[in-house]
Amino acid sequence: MFNLNDLKNFDLKQLDPTKLDLTRLDVRNIDLPKFDMSKFEAAQLPSFDFAKLELPIEVTRIAGFARDAAYVGVGAVVVTAKKADERRRELTDQVTAQVRKLVEAAA
Fold first, then answer.
1. Mapping DSSP to helix (H, G, I), strand (E, B) and coil, where does residue 49 land?
2. pLDDT in tens, the chain (107 residues)
3. Minimal CA–CA distance to 78: which of 90, 86, 66?
4. How does DSSP classify residue 45?
5. CB atoms < 10 A from the CB of 2, how many?
6. Which of 2, 19, 23, 85 has the greatest count of CB atoms below 10 A from its CB?
7. For the chain, how many helices (H) and strands (E)?
């Protein structure tokens, strides 16, 4: 049985990935042990009090910057869409006027 304490003595420097033959790996033959939640003790995990966690930056300030950047991005898209629609209308009016002139000249 594998024990997490065995990882303390595991040295990755000895692992040579060029010598691994992954063509012979068949994941269908891997038997993962079942994790029995009834035997799991929460005391095995370290607990963190995120409210007391001191970060080198203010998370609320970063969230504010991200929100402001999103607003600026949405605003830029709206302005660009309005300008494109305005340009489309101007171009439609110009083409319509020229077609009318050609129809009148031909008649």
1. coil
2. 556 666 666 676 777 777 777 777 777 776 666 666 677 666 666 677 777 777 777 778 888 899 999 999 999 999 999 999 999 999 999 999 999 999 988 87
3. 86
4. S
5. 7
6. 85
7. 1, 0
